[in-house]
Amino acid sequence: MALSFVQKKSAPAQYNVVTKPAESPKKTGTVLSFLKTGQSAREALTQEEAKAELAKQEQGKLWRFWMPDGEDRRVTFLDGEMSDDGLLDVPMFYQHTIRINGNWESFVCTADADTSQPCPLCESGDKPSLVGVMTVIDHSEHKVKNGPNAGAIIKNTRKLFLAKRNTIKQLTKLAAKRDGLAGCTFDVSRTDDKQPSVGNQFDFVEKFESYDDIADKYGLKIEDAQPADYTQEIRYRKPEELIELGVGKAVKSALGTKKVSSAAISDEL
Ligand SMILES: [Zn+2]
Description:
It is a single chain. It is built from ten helices and twelve strands. The relative contact order is 0.21. The protein has one domain: Alpha-Beta Complex (Replication Fork Single-Stranded DNA Binding Protein). By secondary structure, the chain is α+β, with helices and mostly antiparallel strands. Bound molecules: zinc ion. Zinc ion binds near residues 96, 111, 121, 122 and 128. The site of zinc ion (ZN) has 7 residues, from helix 4.
């Protein structure tokens, strides 16, 4: 069954408007000009910079919901209404997920939004996946590892829930039974590492009538019990910005050394 029904035709366009020019990574040309470094050293440096730049840009953004295999979580969906034709009405877009210096990083594929030039990540051999985005509250406890709040226990955290095709199909069935996912709490399990990292078993717990009810039950501010503003949370980078970050090159070098296969990437989300 084609997924064209859930893809909003206008979806890629909305990511155009959120683009703020990214700060340029530090230029290294002058430093490298007197160092006799090889191609691999330059690529490593590019990756290091891309990672630092990405970390800076992602500060203050919502985390993406993810669970290790074999674990259980409890989440409440804050959106995911049913459309009039009985389908899950979520914004969708094409996303590349690549490894940069050991971290998985995601980038919006530029192919739909910018037809004037090829997407640098597609060009370098990576295949994008169609994903739908929703917002959940992750009720599980999490210990903060770094920063000023290191050691603190946080829970009931709002996160982005990115679902690929099979998860969207599964959630559409659940949503049909509950008249939409918004307000529904599920116990989620990920049964093994081949399963989507957002989990593959969803056990219904309860459904809230309103955002107020969710905020009341978990002691949250009302704004922390609302769907995220995806135009703020999902950063669209223009092809030029991706090239400047060096992420196209990062894929190329990873593919070249067979450290990453497309199949491994598509199993990650
Ligand atoms: Zn692409």
